[in-house]
Every structure is written in structure tokens, then in C-alpha cells.
């Protein structure tokens, strides 16, 4: 008998994004959200050479160049990645992670310096999905590990996401070093952004977060900050 086929993790091509991203969002339960309709923009960014173009350490300077080509959306794409998991060339899962545009907009009162720190220092896992028949085999953990490694290389300091309150992600997240926050708990973004800001969970969701590289420990607080909050939005994890 031959050895079992290995799962490979790599950056997704534009064609793979177009075909598989809607499926991943459907599996994650967010197919009818704005994030669920983001696939075409991601595929276009890949074709234009913007996607993940500023993830490498030397590529941080490329953020301004990406913004020149595509504005804020181009800068976000340059700090984003889309990963695909394959076995025997069959796509069995995927991940999308990048800066959250809503957070960047909420930081406008603090100016471009705070927004740039968010672009570089924060990465949100917006979509993580594994085909049902391959769950429980470590595919999701491999996707998260690959994403965290790329984030560390790109000087990201905090990676986060969210899940519905009843989703069982504790084992997956704990194995990858993510802290699963309790209901109503928020993440203090001040150490990363240099301004008073926090990340609040959406109704019925919990946040998950992990320190990347030399980032500060995950600071947790209860919701209700007096400063304009940066809400978590619609990130979901699919158990794997």
C-alpha cells in the first residue's frame, strides 16, 4: 500500500479563488454576507499582483505602492492572503485573512499613522473552512499555522477572528495558540495601534486572538469603551 496523500497548503490562484471561495464561505455560514461576496475582488487583486504583495518583511514598503494602484482596497489586498488546502490536487479547504476595512475606517479620527499600524499590525481570519469529510484531520490547524507563519514574516502583531457563541473551536484554537474569549469580552487594540481602541464581538459571537511575533499579549476587556470601537464583523471559523 502507498503512503497516505499529504495535504499541501499554498497561496490560492485567482482561478482557485473564483471557484472555491464561495464554497468556503457557504461552509462557514457567511455566504450571504458582504464577506461572502468578496471572492471576485480577491481574485482580481491576485491577477493584478496585489494580493499578499506586502506580506514579506521587505514588502511592507509595498503598501503605499498598492494603495497607489487600488486605494484603500489595494492596500488591504496587499496585506491579505488566501490559502488553499489540497490533497491529491483536490481542494479540501481554504482560508482568507487580512486587515479589516471596517476597523481602518473606524480609525480615521486618529489619522493615517494609526491606520498604517492597523494595516501592518492586525490580521483578521475572515474565512476558515474545511470540507466536512476531511474535518478532524488537522487541515484547519495546518491552514492556521501557515497563515500565522506568513503573518509573522510580515510583521503582523495580532491575529484574530470570531465565531458564533455555540461553535466548538476551543481545541482547534488552543492547539494553534489562539485564545478564545468569553461572551462579551473585547480585545484591547491600544498596544498595537497606539491609540485607544478595542475590538468588540458582534452579537452572539466570541472573539479569538493570538499574539504574533513580538506583538503584545492579548489584552481582554469587557465591551463598552468610550472610544470609537472597531467591531469584529462577520468572521467565522469552521471546525476542522
UniProtKB/TrEMBL annotation:
The keyword Metal-binding does not apply. Keywords: Transferase. InterPro entries: Acyl_CoA_acyltransferase (IPR016181), GNAT_dom (IPR000182). It holds the Pfam family Acetyltransf_7. One of its GO terms (molecular function) is acyltransferase activity, transferring groups other than amino-acyl groups. Gene3D superfamilies: 3.40.630.30. Residues 212-240 are annotated as: Disordered. The keyword Transferase applies. It comes from the Bacteria. Residues 80-158 form the N-acetyltransferase domain. CDD domains: NAT_SF. This is Acetyltransferase (GNAT) family protein. It comes from Nocardia bhagyanarayanae.
